[in-house]
Amino acid sequence: MNESLFDIFLLILSGCIGGFISGLLGVGGGIIFVPILDYFLIKKGIETRDLVPSILANSFFAIFVSGIKGSIPAFKSNSIHIRSLIVVGSSAIIGGIITTSLINSGEWYSPAIFKIIFCALLIFTLIKTLIHIQTTSGVLTDKLGLAIGLITGAIAGLSGLGGGIIMVPLFMMLGHMNIKQASTLSLAIIPILVFPNLVFYAISQPVHSLYGSTGHLVWPVVIPIIIGVLFTVKAGVNTANKLSTKIIKIIFAGFVFLTILRILTTV
C-alpha cells in the first residue's frame, strides 16, 4: 500500500472511531479528530498561522456531520424534545459568541488557568456521572435549558472543547435525565452549536490557501474522515440503544477521563 492510500485509510479509520463514539455517547468526537487533523494538515503543508483555524474548521465539519447523521433515528422516532433542542442550542450559540467576544476584547483570559479549572469541572462531572441515580424524567424546563446552553457555549468558547462532554452530565444532573436521554439530546444539539463556527471558518480566508480547499476546510483531508463518520455513527447509536445505562455511564466516564488526560498533556 503506497503512502497516499495509507493516509486515506487512516483518515477513514479516524472518522469511523469518532463517528462511533459520537453516536454511542452523544459527544462530538473532537478528541479523536483534532490530533489526526493536526498531523495530516501539517503534512499537507498548512502553515503555523493557519493551523489552528484549519484544525477547528475540519473538526467542526466532522462533528456537524456526525451529529446530523446520528440524530436522524431519534427524530424519526420522535425521541427529541424539539423545544429543549431549540432553547439549549440557541442559548449555547449565544454563550459561545459572548465568550469569544470577551476573550478577543482583552487580556484577562489565561489558557493555563482555565485548563486547571476546566479539568476540575470535568472531574466533578465524572464523579456525578458515575453516582447519578436513574430517573424517568426527560424534559427540561426552559430556564434549565437556557442555563445549560449558556454554560455549554461559554465553556466551549473558553476551551475549544465542551459540547457533548459538558451537556450530557448537565442534562443528567440538572434535567434529571438518564444518560441515554441526555446523549440523544446532546447529539442533536451539537450541530446547532458548531454550525456558526463552521460557517465562519469556511468563508474566512487563510493566509496561504491550499488547492482543493474552501476557506479553512481542506477537502482531501476532511472527506475521508466524513466517509468514516457516515459508516459508523449509526452503529454507535444502535449500540447505545442495546447497552444498559450503567455500561454507557462507565464508557462515558472513561471518555471524560481520556479528555482530562488530553487537556493536561496538551501544550
Write the layout of secondary structure elements.
Layout (H helix, E strand, L loop, with lengths): L2 H23 L4 H15 L3 H29 L5 H23 L6 H21 L10 H18 L4 H12 L3 H25 L9 E2 L2 E2 H24 L2 H21 L2
Antiparallel strand pairs: 1-2
Molecular structure report:
The protein is mainly α and 267 residues long. The protein has one domain. The protein has ten helices and two strands; from the N terminus they run ααααααααββαα. A two-stranded antiparallel sheet has the order 1-2. β1 (213-214) and β2 form a beta hairpin. α1 packs across α8. The chain is globular.
What would you say about this model in short?
By secondary structure, the chain is mostly helical.
Count of helix runs = 10
Weakly predicted, low-confidence segments: none
User: What would the average pLDDT be, to the nearest integer?
Assistant: 86
Report Rg.
18 Å
Count of discrete domains: 1
Kindly estimate the percentage of residues that lie in beta strands according to DSSP: under 5%
Q: Which key terms come to mind for this protein?
A:
267 residues, single chain, globular, mainly alpha, two-stranded antiparallel ribbon, 10 helices
